[in-house]
Specification:
By secondary structure, the protein is of the alpha/beta class. The chain folds into two domains: 251 residues, Rossmann fold (3-Layer(aba) Sandwich), CATH 3.40.50.300; 58 residues. The longest helix has 26 residues. The N terminus is likely disordered.
């Protein structure tokens, strides 16, 4: 890409554009999108979504994807990238996101990464190692067996086979088991032996992490779950199933969608649906919080998400400018 500082050459001529990339992150349902929308009232920016669920086309309600009005007000990148039947990997995201960030900065606008998918953030700002080639037939058979086991069991196997496994969702657990069994070495060991190539020097993050006491976050999760169901989450899934999206499609592995699929298959009673989704979301949020506390590398500032979104956006911007300019 030429001069490592080139993507920000135009942007840095104006005071609102420090050299580091602003990242607004935090657990699900904490209000990242609202803060980013308020920030857009203060500076000209474009948003790169680091939410793995929002990359899926047609999965709108259960991923809390910004609505058309919000997307008209602020340019977004990383939404509606793949079909629910496809996988949007962290490596593909990182490659595209780096291009989006450079293009945004070249237009003289502030690139802001927004999302809580930790592995996506790591891939973007730290890179990923290139895993060894695996036999496709054995990999397919193993993946089918792991799908029958279920996510919790796969995560337990991943922790047994790889002492360095730090969690990160069903896809990462599956990958850890595959490499341990098919490559003969744990993922963490392979990563130490073949670290990823360093990202460009201009790709330096500054993390604004939103947080709340767990009871308040649980309350927000419950309220958002009820709102999603009222907005037609079940109908959204029914339409996709009727359009021949299989029940085991990658998009339906997301929290909320897998519970609705179970409900439509008569394996989960309607009266239990809201609590099942909320419980899964709370567990996911807890994993995100753990990851964000221990895995972020780079300047990190913590913000109380109980504040009004406009005031919170002003605080984020002020501290970002002070730290990154």
């Amino acid at each position: 890409m030429g001069d490592p500082g080139a993507p920000f050459a135009g942007a840095n001529q104006g005071a609102p554009f420090p050299s580091r990339i602003l990242v607004i992150t935090g657990p699900t349902a904490i209000g990242k999108t609202r803060v980013a929308a308020e920030l857009a009232r203060l500076v000209p920016l474009e948003i790169v979504s680091a939410d793995s669920g929002q990359a899926y086309r047609y999965l709108n309600i259960g991923t809390a994807k910004p609505d058309p009005v919000a997307r008209e007000a602020v340019p977004y990148h990383g939404l509606d990238v793949v079909l629910p039947t496809e996988r949007w990997s962290a490596g593909r995201f990182a490659e595209e996101a780096r291009r989006w960030i450079a293009d945004i900065a070249a237009r003289g606008r502030l690139p802001v990464v927004v999302g809580g998918t930790g592995f996506w953030l790591r891939a973007l700002f730290e890179g990923l190692f290139v895993e060894p080639a695996l036999d496709p037939v054995r990999r397919r058979r193993l993946r089918e067996a792991l799908e029958r086991l279920g996510g919790d069991a796969v995560a337990r196997w991943a922790a047994r086979l790889d002492p360095g496994f730090a969690g990160g969702g069903s896809q990462r657990a599956t990958r850890a088991v595959e490499l341990a069994l098919l490559a003969g070495r744990p993922l963490s060991e392979l990563q130490r032996a073949a670290p990823p190539a360093p990202p460009p020097r201009w790709l330096a993050p500054w993390y604004a992490v939103l947080r709340l006491p767990r009871p308040e976050l649980a309350r927000r999760i419950g309220a958002r779950t009820e709102a999603m169901l009222a907005a037609g989450l079940v109908d959204e899934v029914q339409r996709l199933l009727a359009a021949n999206v299989p029940a085991d499609a990658p998009g339906f592995e997301l929290v909320g969608y897998r519970e609705v699929v179970e409900h439509l298959a008569h394996r989960l009673e309607e009266g239990r649906l809201a609590e099942a989704i909320a419980a899964s979301t709370r567990h996911y949020a807890k994993r995100q919080e753990t990851w964000l506390r221990h895995q972020l590398r780079g300047p990190v500032e913590w913000f109380d998400a109980a504040a009004e979104p406009g005031a919170l956006a002003q605080g984020v911007l002020a501290r970002y400018r002070a730290a990154a300019s």
